[in-house]
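Suppose you are handed only two things: the residues of a chain and a line of SMILES describing NAP. What would the bound structure be? This form records exactly that question and the answer produced for it, so the two can be stored side by side and reused later without any lookup.

QUESTION INPUTS
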Amino acid sequence: MALCDDVDATARRIGAVNTVTLEGGRLLGANTDWIGAVRALERATQLRDREAVVLGAGGAARAVVFGLIERGARVRILNRRPERAKALAEQLGAHGAGALDELASGPCEVLVNTTSVGLREDASPVAAGAIPPNAVVLDAVYDPPETRLLRDAAARGARTVGGKWWLVHQAAEQLRLWTGRDAPLDVMAAAFDRAAP
Ligand SMILES: NC(=O)c1ccc[n+]([C@@H]2O[C@H](COP(=O)([O-])OP(=O)(O)OC[C@H]3O[C@@H](n4cnc5c(N)ncnc54)[C@H](OP(=O)(O)O)[C@@H]3O)[C@@H](O)[C@H]2O)c1
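ANSWER OUTPUT
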């Protein structure tokens, strides 16, 4: 953000930039992660009035918490360092905050992992038994495409959405910002499948 000449209002509110466009020699910062995460979730569920839990309190969490609140969900943020979750909840207007082991202590219809746990490792940020069987679970981690969290969630009966869809939807929005044209989601998803390990 500090290196941009200007940052759009949404990215400023989120507090994170993942896309830079060049307009008239000026670097403009935007954030497509929030809409990418929301569209990935909306492949499986509507979000209005849903009880959502976001694991993590870094840059990806900031975007998805903003997006969930924008769509009318109630959000609880759980993080390894709960004080970061509390600060983010206060800043973005989430309803609750706590530590990762508090997942089962409250309602959860939509679960989003934004921690880096599971990235190129067979590990999950939460115990399998804490995942509600009726939840929709999205993992930001897309390498591997099927993470331990998603396997655990599916085994519990939950619906899962892979990080591929977050990646593809946010990238499609980036292409729209850069070119003004709609991106072919199916072509991008197929390219991901070819490149995935
Ligand atoms: N699919 C997509 O399009 C997409 C988009 C954005 C991000 N991502 C992925 O999302 C992940 C997070 O990205 P980010 O930019 O938000 O990273 P970040 O700002 O560095 O935040 C990392 C988060 O992970 C937590 N964490 C790290 N190691 C942990 C561990 N061993 N146990 C528990 N929690 C741990 C951190 O907790 P503390 O606060 O306690 O340190 C923090 O909440 C990455 O894997 C990234 O690739 C995917």
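WHAT STANDS OUT: The pocket of NAP is lined by residues 33, 36, 56-61, 79-81, 84, 114-117, 119, 125, 140-142, 163, 166-167, 170 (CB under 6 Å). Helices lie at 9-14, 33-42, 59-70, 82-92, 148-156, 163-179, 185-195.
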